[in-house]
Amino acid sequence: MIKPLRRPRLWTALWVLAVLFVIVVCLIPPPPIPVPENGDKVEHFLAYFILSGSAVQLFRQGRPLLWVGLGLVLMGIGIEFAQGALTRDRMADPMDALANTVGVLAGLGLVLTPLRDLLLRWRG
94 CB contacts (<8 Å, ≥6 apart)? Predict the structure, then answer.
């Protein structure tokens, strides 16, 4: 399931922490930073692009990576439902879920490039 990395537990733990970080950031009150209209969609896209692009570095191609991608898409949709149901200062937005999904797909697209094994080649 995991690529033969030099420190697979470390890299997997860091990836899991990044996933947890995204979940927490999406459920806490938003910071009072002005964002252009629909600028949060870029943030959603980038967060999920980074998570899925990182998954490309960790997980083998095929079913393992497909399951991780599906999990990230479902996480993005679930967070939107949670924002609407569990928070007072956030709201569920289907366009955020779409931006999350597009970010996941774009990140998974890295599997088609030489960047797919960047972490595997890096032995530092």
Answer: 80
How far is Cα 40 from Cα 43, in angstroms, rounded to an integer? Answer: 5
What six digits make up the tokens of 8? 């697979």
| One-letter identity of residue 94 | P
pLDDT digits (tens, 9 = 90+) for 12-28: 999 999 999 999 999 99
Tell me how far CA of residue 9 lies from CA of 25, 34, 91, 121, in angstroms.
24, 38, 35, 17
Distances (CA, A) of 15 to 57, 76, 89, 107, 118: 10, 16, 28, 14, 15
- Domain coordinates in residue numbering, the chain: 39-113+118-122
Mean pLDDT of 71-93: 94
Amino acid at 10: L
Mean pLDDT (whole number) for 78-101:
94
What is the pLDDT of the chain when averaged over all its residues?
A: 93
